[in-house]
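Exercise 7. Given the encoded structure of a 245-residue chain, write a plausible sequence.
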């Protein structure tokens, strides 16, 4: 357990590698991450939690414009790699945030941005969203996202996945960052505002045919999302931000 002002429990620098197979990694306070990854990291198990609602539980890759000088341009242009195959991840402003040009692969695990009154979650913070793909690429083929129990509490995440770059929306801008989320599997439970938040015009979420059928009823009620598909190649559907009328 880490207390306020002491920094992240796990830090993987650019060029470094780390594999976590188990353990408890809890952060207390208002200015800490549980994990900061600028290298290559694989999480196969463990329990990660935070009482901090102002920062992500796990951040992988750099935020645009906040790259540390000693990394030079390399980490900003190459990004980081995080693979999550298992474990439990609880709380934070974003449970997992995927940064600039970085790759996030999720095949399993339990991701919870909801805090109830039980002893299990006591002191942990509710999240804005569970997965925030800020400026990278994210592939999800498994895992459980959100709660399956009582969702009546106000202490609940807003969205399961937020897709939106930190760069410009202008397609001719040098700051434009194109990112995508691809979902082929997993179990998803809506937050207070829905499943997905697509916050700019060059972010997309692609659903396999099976996942679209599973989530279609929920998606059809979201007036902010444009649905294109099915693809003639693989039957997938692409979700994007609906243009203003």
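Solution.
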């Amino acid at each position: 357990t880490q207390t306020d002002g002491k920094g992240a429990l796990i830090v993987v620098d650019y060029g470094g590698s780390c594999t976590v197979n188990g353990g408890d990694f809890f952060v207390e306070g208002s200015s800490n991450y549980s994990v900061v990854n600028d290298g290559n990291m694989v999480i196969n198990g463990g329990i990660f939690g935070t009482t901090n609602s102002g920062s992500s539980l796990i951040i992988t890759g750099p935020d645009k414009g906040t790259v540390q000088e000693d990394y030079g341009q390399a980490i900003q242009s190459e990004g980081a790699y995080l693979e999550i195959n298992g474990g439990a991840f609880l709380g934070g402003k974003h449970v997992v945030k995927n940064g600039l040009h970085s790759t996030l692969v999720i095949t399993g695990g339990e991701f919870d941005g909801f805090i109830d009154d039980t002893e299990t979650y006591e002191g942990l913070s509710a999240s804005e969203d569970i997965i925030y793909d800020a400026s990278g690429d994210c592939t999800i083929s498994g895992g459980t996202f959100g709660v399956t129990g009582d969702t009546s509490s106000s202490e609940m995440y807003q969205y399961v996945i937020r897709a939106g770059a930190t760069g410009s929306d202008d397609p001719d801008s040098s700051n434009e960052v194109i990112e995508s989320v691809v979902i082929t599997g997993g179990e998803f439970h809506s937050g207070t505002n829905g499943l997905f938040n697509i916050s700019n015009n060059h972010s997309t979420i692609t659903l396999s045919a099976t996942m679209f059928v599973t989530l279609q009823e929920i998606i059809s009620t979201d007036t902010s999302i444009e649905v294109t598909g099915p693809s003639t190649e693989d039957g997938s559907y692409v979700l994007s931000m609906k243009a203003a009328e």
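Remark. The helical segments are 74-78, 209-219. Students should compare their own answers with the one above.
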